[in-house]
Specification:
Helices cover 46% and strands 14% of the residues. By secondary structure, it is α/β, with parallel strands linked by helices. The radius of gyration is 21 Å and the shape is globular. The N terminus is likely disordered. The protein has 14 helices and 8 strands. Strands 1, 2, 3, 4, 5, 6, 7 and 8 form an 8-stranded mixed β-sheet that branches. The chain has 2 domains: 48 residues; 250 residues, Alpha-Beta Complex (2-enoyl-CoA Hydratase, Chain A, domain 1), CATH 3.90.226.10.
């Protein structure tokens, strides 16, 4: 397989380097709690003091993460992925295949029900185990994945259903076979057609949002990011390799790309940020998923009843205006 960059830089089970002081506090806390249970010593005050110290460390560390640290949080092994969110649904019927070549496991699509609302869910699928991740190419979809996604979006419009997309990919699969089957054309077609789909579209970056692989399902009436996700034209590793030919410059590349939710909200390239639990979604997956659930229901309700022509008109205007600076370019 010919690839231009690694699919994803995974963190190890011990956590991320900037979390080492937090991990040390957690180990001490676990040791004290075990000691209290084993000896029945009254060390509750010491345990409570350590818990406060742990919380303060979390707050301090996550208050001002660097861009590269945010990327590592977005890639954490324990962060909820598409299948976790599918399990929170009331009902889900998967729809497979692109009717041309194959069913791409890196893209999952189906009819979903949540809180009494029906919609079409389309998401990048990374998998949880090593075997699943290999089968899904670490969330890097082939052209048939994007063609499948577009067919399901068009079906949703026919059925009068809103569309929810969940973005979590370092980029589209860059192998020779994918290029031979029209990877760039498939993504371009999705971007073009999503501009005209007469159904509400809610797009959420739940982890990694890399390159055209993310944009292939990312043209929405509302585009949101989870607090510690990232959204970028290229991965930091790819950017460092191209600009400096030096992997050591990856943190610099991440900073320059302005890829965090805070950066992109300030640049008006996204519409909102979904808050995560203290210390990131990987520390409290159930809490993070519940927040996403509430957000989906709230955003779909807000898009209810909007005339399809107005949806398309507003969506096109929003994306055309992105990156325009007041006074330098004409407005739409």
């Amino acid at each position: 397989m010919a690839t231009t960059e690694k699919p994803s830089a995974r963190t190890d089970s011990g956590g991320m380097s900037f979390e080492r002081p937090i991990k040390e506090l957690e180990a001490k806390l676990a040791e004290l709690e075990a000691l209290a249970l084993r000896t029945r010593l009254d060390i509750s005050s010491e345990i409570e003091a350590l818990r406060k110290q742990h919380r303060t460390a979390l707050e301090t560390t996550y208050k001002d993460l660097s861009a590269w640290e945010t990327v590592n949080v977005a890639r954490h092994n324990d962060r909820p992925v598409a299948l976790d969110y599918i399990h929170m649904l009331d009902d889900f019927v998967e729809l497979c295949g692109d009717k041309y070549f194959a069913d791409d496991k890196a893209m999952v699509a189906g009819l979903a029900t949540l809180g009494g609302r029906r919609f079409m869910l389309i998401a990048h699928r990374k998998g949880k185990t090593t075997k699943e991740r290999l089968a899904c190419n670490f969330g890097c979809a082939h052209p048939e994945g994007y063609r499948k996604a577009l067919r399901k979006m068009q079906l949703a419009a026919k059925l009068g259903l809103p569309i929810v997309t969940m973005i979590n990919t370092p980029g589209a699969y860059p192998g020779i076979g994918a290029e031979e089957r029209g990877q760039a054309a498939a993504i371009a077609e999705n971007i073009l057609q999503m501009m005209s789909i007469r159904a509400p579209i809610l797009s959420i970056v739940i982890g990694e949002g890399g390159s055209g692989g993310a944009l292939g399902i990312g043209v929405g009436d509302r585009v949101l990011m989870m607090e510690y996700s990232y959204y970028s034209v290229i991965s930091p590793e790819g950017c460092a390799a191209i600009l400096w030919k030096d992997g050591e410059r990856t943190p610099d590349a991440a900073e320059s790309l302005k890829l965090t939710s805070k950066d992109l909200l300030g640049l008006k390239l996204i519409d909102g940020v979904i808050p995560e639990p203290l210390g990131g979604a990987h520390r409290a997956p159930a809490v993070a998923m519940e927040e996403v659930k509430r957000t989906i229901l709230r955003e779909l309700e807000a898009l209810d009843g909007v005339d399809p022509d107005d949806l398309v008109r507003t969506r096109r205007r929003k994306f055309r205006q992105m990156g325009w600076l007041p006074g330098r370019f004409p407005t739409a």
